[in-house]
Amino acid sequence: MDMDMTLLVTGAGNGIGRAILMHFAGKGWRTIGLDTDSEALAELRDALPRERALLLTCNVGREGEVARAFERIAEWLGDAPLDCLVNNAGIADPYCGPLEDLDLASWQEWIDASLTAAFLVTRAALPHLRRAKSASVANISSTRAIMSEPETFAYAAAKGGLDALTHSMAVTLGPAIRVNAIRPGWIETGPWQKSGARSHPDHRAKDRDQHPAGRIGKPEDIAEAVDYLHHASFVTGQHLNIDGGMTVKMIYED
Fold first, then answer.
1. Which one of 104, 148, 176, 241 has the fewest CB atoms closer than 10 angstroms to its CB?
2. What Gene3D superfamilies does the record tag this protein with (predicted)?
3. Is 151 contained in some domain?
4. Residues 141-186: pLDDT tens digits?
5. Is the pTM of this model over 0.90?
């Protein structure tokens, strides 16, 4: 059990972020979660020991909100370090419609939710990360950083930018802080939503068969990857595809 370790996850209320936070909480870590979904955070508060978890409502794409959240985080941490930061926040739906109809404000929302948020939160977290003996940052990117579906321009650009930010941070912040990216593929997040939005989809055989691993991904797969990267002391600046092999399989239309 890692009772003296602390994790911070953005987008912690639902889906992948929720699974990451609960994975590390289960290992005895202290956890900090940021999210815009106050209802989801309230559920997590009820599920975690109050003295071991700090859950704050925050839009991490907005500088002022991040600054206010870190005032509270600094108070809660005291002199203790932040050992692992997971920049997971983002807009889950990648589809933005035809390029000619995509307005600048909508484009900026996708960029801010993922890429700008990772910059703002990492910058604010640096003093706390630097106190750790071996700190790590995991940026949750996407396989869409390297391959696209139609009409996902802003999402793909945000995740591609996150990949570039990852290797730039790794070069600059090392050796004290290691920075890696995880590129999830198709991850079924339904079971990891707040209670009012939870679902357990029954996927088709053809959906599972797209993956050489034989199944669709689970948020737990991403949590395990974050855990691995935190402890992999010789791994930094890397981009790890967690996609069941989907990006290496040639798929032809029937």
1. 104
2. NAD(P)-binding Rossmann-like Domain (3.40.50.720)
3. yes
4. 999 999 988 999 999 999 999 999 999 999 999 999 999 999 998 7
5. yes
